[in-house]
Amino acid sequence: MKKFTLSLAIVMIILVLSACGAKKYEPQAINEATDKCAVCNMQVKDDQFATQAVLKDGKSLKFDDIGCYNEWKSKNGTEQVGATFVRDYHSKEWIELEKAYYVYDKSFKSPMAYGIYSFKDKATAEKFIAENGKGKLMTGSELGSHTWERNSDKMKHMKDSHKPGDEGKQDMKDMKDMKDGHGGSEAKKEEPKVAH
C-alpha cells in the first residue's frame, strides 16, 4: 500500500509541475499594411530586420530595427516580456533573441541605421563577416554591452531623402544610375554582399 501511495504522490507531483510549465510564446506574422514600430512609428517590413517582443499578456510589439527594440527595452525593462524574436538575415526565419548571433558594423545598412544583422547560428555569422571583410560578432547576451549608436551619416541620408516633396527621388536616381552602369548612391555602395 505504501508503494502505491508513493507512486500516486509522484504522479500527482509530475502532473502539477507539468501544468505549471513555462508558457510558450510565438512571434506573430508581420502585416506591412498595418504594423508600425512601437518606438519610431515607421512601417515594419516583413524582412530580415523585423524584431518582435511578445509580452506575457499575449500582446505583440513589433519593431523595424533591433535598435528600436533596445530603445524600448531601456525605457520599459523586460519584466513584462515573455519572449523576444529577431529574424535570420538570410532566411528571415524567427529566432529567439538570446539564441541568435549578431554581426555589427557601422557601415551596415539597417532601417534605423543601427547596423546590426542577426543570424541563426555562429557559423553563418562568421561566414558573413569573412565574405564582407568586416563586422563584429556578438551573442544575444553581449548585445547588453553594445553601444547602440546609430550611424549619423546614414540617418542624415535617410532624412534628406525623405523631405516632403522628395519622395522617391533618391530611389529614382539610384535606379537610373544602376541602369546607366554607374552603381547608385554611396549608401548602396556600402551595403555588404549577401551570401546564399
TrEMBL record:
InterPro entries: N2O_reductase_NosL. The keyword Ligase does not apply. Keywords: Signal. Pfam families: NosL. Residues 139-196 are annotated as: Disordered. Residues 1-21 form the signal peptide. Residues 161-196 have a biased composition (Basic and acidic residues). The keyword Signal applies. This is Nitrous oxide reductase. It comes from Paenibacillus elgii.
